[in-house]
Amino acid sequence: MNVPQDGRDLIRRLIPLLLPARSVLDRTPSPWMTVAFTYQGLKALGVPQESLDSFAPEFRQGMAARAAELGDVGESSPDHWEEPLGRPDVHIAVATLAPDQASLAQLVERARQAQDEFPGVDVIWRQDCYQLATGRTSFGFKDGIGQPVVEGAGTAPANPGEPPIKAGEFILGYPDETGGLPPMPTPDVLGRNGTYVVFRKLHTRVAAYRRYLRERAADRAEEALLGAKMVGRWQSGAPLALTPDRDDPELGADPKRNNDFGYRDDPRGLKCPAGAHARRANPRDSLEDDSVDVRLHRMIRRGTSYGPALPDGVLDDDGADRGIIFVFAGAHLDRQFEFVKTQWINDGIFIGAPQESDPLVGPRDGTGTFTVPRRPIRRRLRDMPPFVVTRGGEYCFAPGLRGLRWLAGLTEESR
Fold this sequence. Notes:
By secondary structure, this protein is α+β, with helices and mostly antiparallel strands. It has helices at residues 3-14, 21-25, 39-45, 49-52, 57-61, 67-70, 101-116, 188-191, 206-216, 220-231, 249-252, 277-281, 333-345, 401-408, and strands spanning 32-37, 92-97, 195-204, 300-306, 323-330, 368-372, 379-384, 388-398.
């Protein structure tokens, strides 16, 4: 059995199933597939060591090795991750997305048939995920609103205050926001048009989240408000920055308005707390007077759900595994995903609250706090348990089509 050759032959069989970027940009609903590799996977394929050494150090180390820096400790540590996530035997990740179940099943079956032909390649993990019937996350919030627009993609920004981001922030081989070219793996054919992909499986403790709010709210209206303060948006997607006192479902459903805002006029966080999840992940114009350029830390993010939804009103955990699959794409693992995760999500120094982490997804041991600014006296939520637990993750590299063809054509002599 020639395991490296089987892997290369599998890539060759998968390439015809992939769509070029231009066909995705036309926004016609269609099934698509992405193929990405871990460092160990590239090594197993026979990528020369000189090329392997040219990848970002975070990618070479892998997410599990960087768990402590990322805040994946305690229940979220790799010791408790779902096998085989974070292990050296994870080599290739194949992700498929489709507008309906039938086309998804057809594409997955074609990939499975290709894999079956090569005994040196085993499927060791699979995760089914989907959009919940509500169209929201397991916590009940509309998601995926504040995505950056890539320069040259032909899409008008939903937030006029954020011009399109340079393509080099997301795709290797092009100028980024600094005006330079990001470090790119070699050879050029492998690195150009590739991107780093961060995969995270996050278990959500929905019942604990609901109980926490219920126990601290006088009524359902205050319960909804506290939840919105933690997230930075109402469940409909309407931002607190535009409607701080009550939900506005029409605003939340309007893509031309629900991302058109900033935080500069709310420095104290009276409308949207500076520590709210959405504001931490994307501070927008609130840091313009500081030394941080927010545009250097933007990522393309996609999230979807796994597991059954917890029925409305249920406050007790039913034992089901449910949560969110997050995928981040960018050209800089260090100053995009890792910076945002460690400096903005896990740490409260940049907002003047060094003892606080993100109220929704931040790491906690049950002693965390979250400050809600208000007049005349701020409110501080205490003893916050962890609402999200990391079940696993990987750092991957997704080559462009030319890079995939190069990988498929590797031989023992080229190593």
